[in-house]
Amino acid sequence: MSGRLAGRIALVTGGRGGIGRAICARFAEEGATVIAADLSETGSVGDAAPGAFQRLDVSSEAEAEAAMAAVAAGHGRLDVLVNAAGIEIEKTIEQTSLEDWNRIFAVNVTGTFLASKHALPLLRRSAAAGGASIVNFGSYDGFIADPGLAAYCATKGAVHALTRAMACDHGPEGIRVNAICPGYVDTPMLQSFFAGEGSGGQGGTVETLEQAVRDVHPLRRYGTPRDMANLVLWLASDEAAYASGQLWVLDGGLSAQVQQMRT
């Protein structure tokens, strides 16, 4: 099969979620053998999806080890790891319990750490033969903050720092590490945000909130999972062979503008 990822083996955590599912589909289109690692076969979207399924709770070291052992047994190597699993909590720090705080760090930060740690031996095999890539998921909320997302913003700042550190540590081995930093993306998580009582609520309807979000973007829309998948594809491919240690903001120009002067 031809394509930019022809013959590559890729594992996507959160691979049955909104963005993860789109990444799996995009990778498959470009010739990759894709493993979608998630908590369930249907995930947050609730229907069939591309890629072989691998059960993985990213917050569990035992499950991370087991998932990578399955990849080793089935394929012998790993060319691309995408850490797309993540959750969001819509609370200020005053509203956030210690349980909330520990849970979101366990998924968003520890999950990225564990999957990457246990994938490294497999990635090294591919790196020795020409290169390997890790793509983490940060957020524009790791640079600037939306109200009512304190713990989420903290986790994404941590992923940004971890991405740079991993790129420095493992670049000499031929393993590139980057992070994508989305803004608003049309996923089940975004719809939950619109329906919530925190930063997404404010007394408006879902429809009025959706339009308000579109209106603050210079491109007058928010992102799609496919938009995110296209950038992940590039970072995973040989076209991005010199790209490493970077935080790629993909937000339709939202964070480029002076907010009080937007038109």
Automatic annotation (TrEMBL):
Domain of life: Bacteria
Keyword vocabulary terms for this entry: NAD, Oxidoreductase
Record keyword NAD present: yes
Family matches, as SMART domains: PKS_KR
Residues annotated as domain Ketoreductase: 8-183
Keyword Cell inner membrane: no
Family: Belongs to the short-chain dehydrogenases/reductases (SDR) family.
Protein name, per record: SDR family oxidoreductase
Organism: Paralimibaculum aggregatum
Native organism taxonomy: Bacteria, Pseudomonadati, Pseudomonadota, Alphaproteobacteria, Rhodobacterales
